[in-house]
Amino acid sequence: MVSVSPSGPINGQLSEAAVLPRRSKLTLAKILACLAVFGRVIVAPIMLVAVFLQTKYLTSGGMFIGPTDRFFAFSPMDAVMVGGCSNCQVGCLNALLQMAQFGSQALMSKPTFENLYTRSDWDASILKSEALALATTMESDANTMVLAVVNALQLSVAPQAFQEVTEAVEMDVNCPSDWVLEAHLRLFRFPAAAKSSEFSSISAADFTIFPEQTHCRPEVDNSGLVASRLALATDGIDLLATVPDVLKLFPYGFTSSLPPVSRAIEASETSTRILQPLFHGYYGGCRVREVNATGVYTEAECSISTHWVNYGLMLQSPDDLPVCSTDDVCVHNYYNSLWEFVTEVDASAPDRLSMVLNVFRSRYADRVQLNVLPGLVVLQILVMGILSLYQVMAHQRSVLLTQIWAYRCQNGRMQVLYLAQITYHLAASSDLYYLGLATGTLTPEALTNLALCFFGFSYSFVNLLKARSGEQQLARHFRLTWETMQTLITVCTTLGLYTARHRSLSAILTTNGELLRKTTARGAAMCNLSDSCIVFKHNLVVVALVASLALASVASFVSLLAQKHAPNRRKTSLDLRSVVPQEAKPFDRPEARAPGSQQQANALKGPSVECLPMERKPPVLTSFERHCLGSPFARLFVDCHDLAYVRYKGRRCSTVEAVLLTGFLFYGEHVYQAQDVVLLLLARVLPRKFTRTFNVLFVRWELDAKTGRVTHPQGCTWYSASGDAFRLAEARPIA
After folding, report:
1. Which residues contact 723 (CB under 8 A, 6 or more apart)?
2. Rounded to the nearest 5°, which phi and psi values hold at 125?
3. Integer CA distances (angstroms), 642 to 152, 657, 733, in order
4. pTM of the model
5. Which of 256, 492, 541, 604 has the most CB atoms around it within 10 Å of its CB?
6. pLDDT (tens digit, 9 = 90+) per residue, 268-325?
């Protein structure tokens, strides 16, 4: 065991020595001390206050983004949205016969459309000679134009889509792509009552034309392509003044009061903009051109159908493929239901057609109120850190006192409370955090909450692990390293979460999730009201636990390196004029000098450190050890023998560092326990009648200014102690 010198002046007698020039070498310990205090006391509180004031964290914050904050994504040939069929090729003639069933109508009811798949008794006589000739040509020539099919069957397709494929023929050299004519069942919504956001729904089939290479769709202005007429007068009522949020996600091919949504998408895969298809609106089976307070305008050449007019204004709705948790919280994936795909013959099975979809998706989740418990826990941690800094370093500042401050922050009863609160929150909200991370739907407030959870859990867990790992130790190098790492870890975690905010971390679902269907026994028991749900295998607490252990290992390794490369500790003698460093010999007193020399006389006046060997019988206890601790300080901290005692004015004393490390504080003419001093400081701003109301008993020790000793413990109330109105007193060794 080697010795160190106490840092800084001890009393007013040595104040001149404190201001004498000193040659200070910048060491790793000093750097860690500055970073730890700066990060914990300045940076972290500022960041937390900024979160509280600049976000909705304390007001209306939610776990997931809502419809107004939804994010849009385009996935060409999405690897998830794949499919196909075997032996499903019906032949060109049968395909034309199926499409001919639409006639000149733009819509077909769901039962009639589904019957087309199973019907086999087709009558080719319904086709005109032009259509029959086209079918024959299609069987031998795969390059038949979509326009020829539309014209031969007189199909009712959207004018804008028809114009797009017309212009695409001219630009085929610059952007070659096959175009697809397809009829598909889609969901349409119509208002159940006037001025109501309650919309009913119905499924119907209509046509769409699209390119397999989405970036080959030309931009065509939809206005003025066809004439329009007033089909329904509403007498000043706008039917779309109030609509559900789901109808505000995608652009429509008509003019209305709906919020404008751009159809253009900046795709990273190509240098050109991608144009998504426009949703359709129908009234009486006719495509809508405009909706306003005057009424509903449709294509002029379309005849109103009595069948469809009963449903009123029908708006195409996106398809929702939700991902739900076991708590019935769902992330809604709304897809553009004008599905566009690429079809080709499977190379491994000639009778199978494979299909890959080009996906336009808008995503948001159900409303879940944010739990602010992690923010309050971190606030407690930061406040206690500031109070501990005031208690420990109000007298003087040094690396050793900074290490003691870090130790005080990382130990105590509150660590158990911190860990319990954060563990409860993580265990209860684990599935929600997983769901939000996997789908990219967590709000900034929720991401901040998750970062605070990680800080609070890792900090308190490692602190408790360190405290329960064996003998009570200051572990001075580890304390500052761990405090410094916490600031860096929290900043990096927050930046990482914000960077991946809108990225779907699908690996979470594939490695840690299991999809359950309501049709299975386990799914029926766990999915509640949802048709399917995601069950996560490992709770987020396990992830936080493993990460905390890894970070603790890193901190231990760094602290060992810091301890290994730390400079040799030295014993010093202080006088009023100079600071004379001396190389220390273990367990020895300062080097003897010539009798009567001024240096020897000054050495007896200044403080020096006296180490207590473990194998020797401890000397007589100091008054601080006898009345405050009840045992030698060296028995409380097995790695603090070098700072236990100091030779001051010819007396063996407990050092200031030992007093502060064990949780005591100099206040006025007394020594108090540190937590009591906080109440005494608080009493300065409280009315005297208020403190008199509480029967709080303090224990204190009177410090004799002449002898440097403390008396036996004395009891007093909060009211009487606060009446002294003393400030923090000057720290000094206790004889």
Report:
1. 688
2. -70, -15
3. 99, 11, 15
4. 0.76
5. 256
6. 655 578 899 999 999 999 999 999 999 999 999 999 999 999 999 999 999 988 888 8
